Request: fold
Amino acid sequence: MTDHEKFLVTARQVATDEARALDALAGSFDHRFAEAVQMILDATGRVIISGIGKSGHIGHKIAATLASTGTPAYFVHPAEASHGDLGMLSKGDVVLAISNSGEAPEVVNLLTYTRRFGIPLIGLSSKMESTLMTQADVHLQIPAMGEACGFGMVPSISTTLTLAMGDALAIALMKHRDFRPENFRDFHPGGKLGAQLSKVRDLMHSDDALPLVAADTPMADVLIEISQKGFGVAGVADADGRLQGIITDGDLRRHMDGLLEKSAASVMTEGPTTIPPGAMAEEAVGVMNQRKITCLFVVDPENGGKPEGLLHIHDCLRAGLG
Reply:
């Protein structure tokens, strides 16, 4: 067997072992998991995650996932906690302490502090008889299935299970709180994810930037409005301010003969495609692509049909959509 073949055998073995462990974890969830979720829901403060070594690295990720899905959380290093950071814990908080063995000495002072001041403690370990689990109020046990290295020395299966347990907690809490994409957007305003979760109102042009004319506006003035606003279109509003139609470059070409003697109402295309301000920006991109148009007027049906903004495809592209 060549070295490359050996590499592939090892990779498949690791993935298979970890997949088997995840199956075991899925079958192990019981009332203790539900109790942990309820304890976090009942907390008036934050979830404090703590762990040392690889457990600490996983703890950082769990804290970040909780915080980004509506459960206030942060990570406290157990060694730093012994040198003053215990003051970050307070009544109303709940602690999630992570240790595969349950015997990490750095965690002891943290356990003692939670017991002294009555702070609820969730223990996450593979060993129920460990110090951590005997002290904890609620127990999250991961299956003890060794490690992928075969020697039980390289945290791999145990860290995968710990990470999965944290994800299960975060998503159970998120679903209970009915945490929706629009809420997710508040915690992820940047990057590709922020763009995907943008709403139309986040990207649209409004107020004085809106190219809008009255139905009886002479086309000479309409052309000035289109030129000044720079979107290549103008919306046409009726006497009550409702969006009645739209004038595009196609409309201008179709009415070129005697154009300047006409009014906006005689040139416009009636019933233009619109989108509500609360729609996801990706939905707007889909509408524009489907209809082969470059912009949409933003109209809230609950606002009497009055235009509130204009969304151009370029705005979506600049935000990372499309």
The chain has a mean pLDDT of 88. The first helix runs from residue 3 to 28. The radius of gyration is 29 Å.
